[in-house]
Specification:
Elements: H1 6-18, E1 26-32, H2 45-55, E2 59-68, H3 75-83, E3 86-94, E4 99-106, E5 110-117, E6 127-135, E7 138-146, H4 151-164, E8 172-177, H5 186-195, E9 214-219, E10 224-229, H6 233-238, E11 244-248
Parallel strand pairs: 1-2, 7-8
Antiparallel strand pairs: 1-11, 2-4, 3-4, 5-6, 6-7, 8-9, 10-11
Helix pairs in contact: 2-3, 4-5
């Protein structure tokens, strides 16, 4: 289990102390920010922050997030400052020079965080960030991930992820960049068998989306009521992926 930052702990305490009312419906989003490098090749975290403000989601999973290091800026810290959300990180690459991977931003307290190692052989390190979020006393388990590029790699990663979902303690949301280019690839079949089918709008490449690489699943399935792509002019240039946003009900 990973300790949260002091800022996230303070935010969580304040939010928990002041929480009232019913959180439903919740807006849940996933966004591969491409290291905050836009389609024009410009590094611009402020554009990613602008897209997040447009989304106005309650919980946001991020992929390809620079998390700090001697050679890497801490983009997550900038996005947390810009949004005022609680933040949790799940680095897939974690060295002194470079920290890089998944993250979750949340309006609600993030009570605990776990990292799931999904590395496969000598391929690029991959992982998932597994977080418990307290939405006014309604617990959600949010698992943000970014799968590998090769089919065998993705199949192994999904097998390992699904082994972690054997729980009925709270609803489970899996979201992120699944990197599955084929509509009926084995990776997607495994996920549909576990979560049931969900809408899959195209999100990549952001300027002319052709592929549904980014996905949001929830178990139980009936709580997912709407899924759509966020395709504003800013989102089309800020990253090579468009954000995907869903509404879930209680």
């Amino acid at each position: 289990m990973t300790d949260l930052s002091d800022a996230s702990r303070a935010y969580a305490a304040d939010a928990h102390a002041s929480s009232t009312g019913d959180p439903w419906p919740l807006a849940i989003a996933t966004y591969n920010i491409h290291g905050a490098v836009g389609c024009d090749g410009r590094f611009a975290p402020e554009r990613i922050a602008g897209v997040l403000k447009e989304l106005d989601a309650d919980i946001i999973a991020l992929q390809e997030v620079p998390l700090g290091g001697s050679r890497t800026p801490n983009v997550l810290a900038e996005l947390q400052r810009a949004t005022g959300y609680a933040a949790a990180e799940g680095p897939a690459c974690d060295t002194r020079e470079k920290r890089y991977g998944n993250a979750v931003l949340s309006r609600y307290p993030i009570l605990s965080v776990r990292s799931i190692d999904l590395s496969f052989g000598s391929r690029e390190p991959r992982g998932a960030l597994d977080a418990d979020v307290d939405c006014h006393g309604h617990m959600l388990r949010v698992i943000a991930t970014h799968l590998g590029l090769r089919p065998a790699e993705r199949r192994d990663q999904i097998r390992r992820l699904l082994e972690k979902f054997d729980t009925d303690e709270m609803p489970v949301i899996l979201l992120g960049d699944i990197n599955e280019w084929f509509a009926w690839g084995k990776t997607l079949r495994s996920l549909v068998n576990h979560f049931q089918a969900v809408p899959a709008p195209t999100t990549f490449p952001s300027r002319w989306p052709l592929f549904a690489l980014d996905r949001i699943w929830i178990r139980p399935r009936h709580r997912l009521v709407h899924v759509e792509v966020h395709a504003t002019p800013l989102a089309r240039v800020a990253s090579d992926h468009l954000p995907l946003i869903a509404r879930i009900d209680g």
